[in-house]
């Protein structure tokens, strides 16, 4: 891999590849190229990618759900941020990327385990099966803590509700308006009361 004689031009090219790019294949190749540059280009290149205009405005922005990156690519980006924040060999100021790292921690972002390499994760169960989900925290609200017994009960009632919906649908299909079976209509009323009760429990 050739050495980078012009670090600024290299970083500029990487920024261009990452900016508003929704092509997962191109992003993956660009992240691999970034990994190689980090390993081979030395402090001059490293000191540029740890600035906020790159690590935050280009890399972290890709974690936005609208890009829908596979989980292994999200982990690679987060590993970049985490490892860069811990510093490089040589005179590289990592204060800006460290600030980005701390901001993400405060937001509750889930970082990969620290046993990966400096540039990014090499292999993991998640990279073998890159499911598409976001590592960014979901919007938070009032938290309701439930015991395992309560959770089990809710799941059981939810299953019952699903079964009731199937039965209700079957009854509705078999009854013609104006000639409904009274027994069926009574059964529907029972199901409706049960559904209402279950909805109240989920709105605790």
From TrEMBL:
One of its GO terms (biological process) is signal transduction. SUPFAM superfamilies: ENTH/VHS domain, GAT-like domain. Residues 121-141 have a biased composition (Low complexity). InterPro entries: ENTH_VHS (IPR008942), GAT_sf (IPR038425), VHS_dom (IPR002014). It comes from the Eukaryota. SMART domains: VHS (SM00288). It holds the Pfam family VHS. Residues 1-112 form the VHS domain. One of its GO terms (cellular component) is endosome. PROSITE patterns: VHS. Residues 113-141 are annotated as: Disordered. Coiled coil: none annotated. One of its GO terms (molecular function) is ubiquitin binding. PANTHER family: TOM1-LIKE PROTEIN 1, VHS DOMAIN CONTAINING PROTEIN FAMILY. This is Target of myb1 like 1 membrane trafficking protein. It comes from Buteo japonicus.
